[in-house]
User: Fold this.
Amino acid sequence: MQFAKRLEPLQANVFADMDQAKARAKAIGRDLIDLSLGSSDLPAGLHVIEAIAQTLSDHSTHGYLLFHGTQAFRQAAANWYVQKFGIPVDPETEVLPLIGSQEGTAHLPLAVLNPGDFALLLDPGYPSHAGGVYLASGQIYPMPLKAENGFLPVFEEIPSPVLDQSRMMVLSYPHNPTTAIATLSFFQAAVAFCQQHNLVLVHDFPYTDLVFEDATAPSILQADPEKSVSIEFFTLSKSYNMGGFRIGYAIGNAELIRALRRVKAAVDFNQYQGILQGAIAALSGPQAGVKATIAKFQERRDAFISALHRYGWQVPTPAATMYIWAQLPEPWTQDSIRFCTQLVEATGVAVSPGAGFGKSGEGYVRFALVHDPQVLETAVSKIAQFLHS
Assistant:
């Protein structure tokens, strides 16, 4: 049986290898502490669950849901955005519901790229960004993210021949996995660069609210209020702990929204109406739960960092996200996959290898703060024993 060549770049997946390593650890009796997946362990708000539950007995919500049936959700998303960022949004032409932001980042290349076109992606970066480009038969130019540059790409380093064949750039700040934050001035430079080179500017923005202390996370549309080249992807997975409900949305340039809508129409319908009702309740209702989620992840961050420092692993304190991005000590500095597979088999603690996020992620590991502080401190103790063994 023959398969499309576009599947070939999707064969290698270190996270599948990590799943096998976790299975081996369980098979030999290890108690697993899984810090490898960024799936919140916190519950969705009670008012969100109640809004969904109220729709279940209404049989009119049980059928297919087309675009015009999502108007109330699109209005709620637009209202939320205007209140938070102050940029006007037209819910009819500039908002599109999605089955999580990952659907948008994976499908948009089908609307933007022709075979052989380049997409400029962050390295390290979120794996689905690359997957969408490969499925569109595009090429990837990885923009290396280095600590000395604040884990921001340097646009001037992109070769002219690549730029000539490029059609889109994908950014994502606060950044997974490095936890870096971009400033508004950086976004303004990115918008000007994309306007100059006729690039679509994509901003994946799942960690909109997960910033700590006095840090801020600007929207790309604050740098491009006319939405000349930009589209931004949002999700309710992080701020509202609704990852399993698969609900997100795009806001941006009306032509890009229309193009993505055409791709989506060929692939799927929208979610169950009840899910949208829950999302409306989340976006429009009390936001105390968002603040509580931020406080919880800040508490976990502080406990985890303090524990690492006690054992001598000096890791910077992140200003955002639900992760710790840690440079590996010797002798693991160039083999993050081996470190992670041996760690979970020896201790039951599972973490993500930096190499799984791109070539420039090698030498790092990502810890997801998806357990309470006492569990995180136990994990750090086991990691320290492994490092010193």
Remarks:
- Residues 50-284 form a domain with the Aspartate Aminotransferase; domain 2 fold (CATH 3.40.640.10).
- The chain has a mean pLDDT of 95.
- The CA atoms of residues 80 and 344 lie 41 Å apart.
